[in-house]
Design a protein that fits this description.
heterodimer, A: mainly alpha, Helix Hairpins, elongated, B: mainly alpha, Four Helix Bundle (Hemerythrin (Met), subunit A), 7 helices
Amino acid sequence: MMEIGLNHYLVLSAILFSIGLIGVMKRKNLLMLFFATEILLNSVNIAFAAISHFYGDLTGQMFAFFVIAIAASEVAVGLGLLIVWHKRHNNVDLDQMSTMKG
Amino acid sequence: MFEAVAFYLFAFLTILMFFITVTTSQALHALTALAAGMIFISAFFFMLDADFLGAIQIVVYSGAVMALYAFGMMFFDTTREIKEKQGNNYIVAGLTILSAILIVLIFAAPMITESVTALYPMTEGVGNTQEVGMVLFTKYLIPFEVAAVMLLVAMIAGIVLAGKKMDLSMTLMTDAEIEEAKKEKERNSRIFS
């Protein structure tokens, strides 16, 4: 109980991943959906860092760095698209984005 | 002992903050709780001897990403209540927990075999930042460069998407010009929608 092992970190990562997934499934607002996506990526980063530490291997940390880079670019492009949508339609609700127009 | 105390404290705080983020109906509360959760997560990285990753976590997430969200939210009406999808909560929670267990199993499956050996073992006597540099600029040099190009593409996409009509300043225009711009925008939205 007092000795923190790999399983503790994996369970924590799973709990945070569940919270993020609940956010992705139940949110209607696209900005809130982006927040939930950040939670998902961060929970996976914890698992990568923990495995990297307990197996003495640096590959996990490398993957965490690339995940952070991907998260940053996702935010930049997603927020740009969101601003364009909001300027044109004055809302960011997911239900009204269900149709595609050329 | 201290590691256990720190782990449980930060685990509790992180879970609480992220729970607030996904449940609150105020966008500003969600943003603040998310920023706090990101900083608490960096504590785990410091505990796991990944100092450089922890520093990057604070700089990138609570610095860059949160500032980007804060600037983006200036475009939106954040005072309005966010409408929530009315679905079956039990199905959502069940599916969520099921997929999280699946993710943990995916992580844990290679380790059950007990034949895992470190591909890039930690070198003795050097700091974490130096180790990361040595591996990143030898084995992972190509992915590093590709990530740099991807960030450049994302930056240009962000500028192109969000920078439209940025040359118009609402504070420097007269009222008549603002009315004219509004009419113009309505005409455009009628064409596009």
